[in-house]
Amino acid sequence: MASVVPVKEKKLMDVKLGELPSWILMRDFTPSGIVGAFQRGYYRYYNKYINVKKGSIAGLNMVLAAYVIFSYCFSYKELKHERRRKYH
Amino acid sequence: MLSRVVFSAAATAAPSLKNVALLGPGVLQATRIFHTGQPRLAPLPPLPEYGGKVRLGLIPEEFFQFLYPKTGVTGPYMLGTGLILYFLSKEIYVITPETISSISVIGLIVYAIKKYGASFAEFVDKLNEEKIAQLEESKQASIKQIQDAIDLEKSQQTLAQKRHYLFDVQRNNIAMALEVTYRERLHRVYKEVKNRLDYHISVQNVMHRKEQEHMINWVEKQVVQSISAQQEKETIAKCIADLKLLAKKAQAQPIM
């Protein structure tokens, strides 16, 4: 890795593709680390889209869309049987 | 991102921690790292005005910017259309009765939001603004109160500096009273002295007058005494002769 800054310190967008596995392994997987990651993610989304003076419906919309897609993924197994054609 | 800051702080603090581990647990308390950074959230930064931009109410603007250098403006839309067609044709998304109901529900929601979104947002903004205005008012009131207290305190402090005016006035009053009594007494002295002198003068005048009157009386008495009887008869006869002459003259003149 011919990078000037050690891989530990980079943000995800700056990590090169080859360094990705080592970057992922470097992350903090202790319970407090995971909780911290969820908290950070939540506050990042909250402060960007909801905790503003003139928030739009998009802040809520994206959460609902993500929930819809997430639940569709989990119910795909049952929905597979309602397909109109067997072979695509 | 915050974890990186924590890691870098830990890295800089690592040497001291390593040394402490050698010394023992008792010394650990002494070299614990306290909050040495600047308090970043005071005063609180103001809320941003608008949230992150989102297109179609679903997809954040960053995604479009991410694809713009490679695919231009229509890239993400093409990607979206392609993905939808792919899901439909491969039946990764299955068309069920639920699809139709969800289409109608989502259509209704989109219509309602497009129609009433702005007015609802205005209403909520107004509520918010009222709350903020109330808080701001109370804050201003308390600030004003404290400012008034400060001004009062300052004015009282300056009053303490101006005590010398009071003393000056008192000193002036006393000086004036002294002056007044001095002049009063001077005037009295003058009056008394004048009184005494006037007395002497009037005594002199009275003596003078008395002497004059006495002299006049004495001279008159002597003169009257000196006029003997015979001289009196002669004088009276002469006066009668003069008078007769004068009468003749007076009678003679009007006739002329």
UniProtKB/TrEMBL annotation, chain A:
Molecular function (GO) terms for this protein are:
proton-transporting ATP synthase activity, rotational mechanism
Any GO CC annotation of this UniProt entry: proton-transporting ATP synthase complex
Listed under GO biological process in this entry are:
proton motive force-driven mitochondrial ATP synthesis
InterPro entries in UniProt: F1F0-ATPsyn_F_prd
How does it sit in the bilayer?
A: Single-pass membrane protein
Transmembrane domains' residue ranges: 57-76
Which one Pfam family would you cite for this protein? Answer: WRW
Q: What are the subcellular locations of this protein?
A: Mitochondrion inner membrane
- Describe the function of this protein: Subunit f, of the mitochondrial membrane ATP synthase complex (F(1)F(0) ATP synthase or Complex V) that produces ATP from ADP in the presence of a proton gradient across the membrane which is generated by electron transport complexes of the respiratory chain. ATP synthase complex consist of a soluble F(1) head domain - the catalytic core - and a membrane F(1) domain - the membrane proton channel. These two domains are linked by a central stalk rotating inside the F(1) region and a stationary peripheral stalk.
Family indicated by similarity = Belongs to the ATPase F chain family.
Report quaternary structure and partners: Component of the ATP synthase complex composed at least of ATP5F1A/subunit alpha, ATP5F1B/subunit beta, ATP5MC1/subunit c (homooctomer), MT-ATP6/subunit a, MT-ATP8/subunit 8, ATP5ME/subunit e, ATP5MF/subunit f, ATP5MG/subunit g, ATP5MK/subunit k, ATP5MJ/subunit j, ATP5F1C/subunit gamma, ATP5F1D/subunit delta, ATP5F1E/subunit epsilon, ATP5PF/subunit F6, ATP5PB/subunit b, ATP5PD/subunit d, ATP5PO/subunit OSCP.
Annotated protein name in UniProt = ATP synthase F(0) complex subunit f, mitochondrial
State the species of origin: Heterocephalus glaber
TrEMBL record, chain B:
Q: Name one GO molecular function term.
A: proton-transporting ATP synthase activity, rotational mechanism
- Per UniProt, what is one Pfam family of this protein? Mt_ATP-synt_B
Family of the protein in this entry: Belongs to the eukaryotic ATPase B chain family.
Lineage summary: Eukaryota, Metazoa, Chordata, Craniata, Vertebrata
Subcellular location(s) per record: Mitochondrion; Mitochondrion inner membrane
UniProt entry tagged with the keyword Metal-binding: no
Q: What is the protein's given name? A: ATP synthase subunit b
Name the UniProt key words of this record, in alphabetical order: Acetylation, CF(0), Hydrogen ion transport, Ion transport, Membrane, Mitochondrion, Mitochondrion inner membrane, Transit peptide, Transport
User: What does this protein do, in the record's words?
Assistant: Subunit b, of the mitochondrial membrane ATP synthase complex (F(1)F(0) ATP synthase or Complex V) that produces ATP from ADP in the presence of a proton gradient across the membrane which is generated by electron transport complexes of the respiratory chain. ATP synthase complex consist of a soluble F(1) head domain - the catalytic core - and a membrane F(1) domain - the membrane proton channel. These two domains are linked by a central stalk rotating inside the F(1) region and a stationary peripheral stalk.
Look up and give the organism this protein is from.
Heterocephalus glaber
**Subunit structure and binding partners:** Component of the ATP synthase complex composed at least of ATP5F1A/subunit alpha, ATP5F1B/subunit beta, ATP5MC1/subunit c (homooctomer), MT-ATP6/subunit a, MT-ATP8/subunit 8, ATP5ME/subunit e, ATP5MF/subunit f, ATP5MG/subunit g, ATP5MK/subunit k, ATP5MJ/subunit j, ATP5F1C/subunit gamma, ATP5F1D/subunit delta, ATP5F1E/subunit epsilon, ATP5PF/subunit F6, ATP5PB/subunit b, ATP5PD/subunit d, ATP5PO/subunit OSCP.
What cellular component terms from Gene Ontology apply here? mitochondrial inner membrane; proton-transporting ATP synthase complex
Identify the coding gene.
ATP5F1
Gene3D superfamilies listed in its UniProt record:
1.20.5.2210
Presence of keyword Magnesium:
no
Looking up InterPro entries in the UniProt record yields:
ATP_synth_Bsub_B/MI25 (IPR008688), ATP_synth_F0_suB (IPR013837)
